[in-house]
Write a sequence for this structure.
């Protein structure tokens, strides 16, 4: 079985109920959704199918975590520049920042690599 990414847009009330039910059962929302669909369609999934499903979920969450971290780092860099006073030194992590920051102060910037 190949994994297919399918988005289902739920009414707000159903989405909230699914999230609450998943949390109470110790499931991820997607896990419970697959389980409910599987049962309602009377479909069995073999262990290989489930492994592919969990692998796809973990890749999705890993990409979301990387994007979240990138945004947090960029936000912190923006805040540090905005809060700095003239002649302050800003130390920032190595990386690519896509946000534009207009600096109208005399600042010293030091980059470092975080391993």
């Amino acid at each position: 079985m190949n994994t297919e990414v399918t988005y289902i847009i739920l009414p707000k009330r159903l989405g909230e109920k699914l999230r609450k039910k998943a949390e109470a059962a110790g499931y991820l929302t997607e896990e419970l959704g697959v389980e409910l669909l599987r049962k309602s369609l009377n479909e069995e999934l073999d262990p290989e199918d489930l492994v592919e499903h969990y692998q796809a979920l973990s890749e999705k969450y890993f990409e979301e975590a990387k994007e979240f971290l990138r945004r947090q780092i960029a936000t912190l860099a923006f805040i540090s520049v905005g809060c700095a006073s003239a002649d302050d030194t800003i130390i920032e992590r190595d990386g690519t920042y896509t946000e534009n920051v207009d600096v109208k102060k005399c600042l010293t910037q030091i980059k470092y690599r975080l391993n």
User: Anything to note?
Assistant: Helices lie at 12-25, 29-40, 47-83. The chain has two domains: 9-44, 46-115.
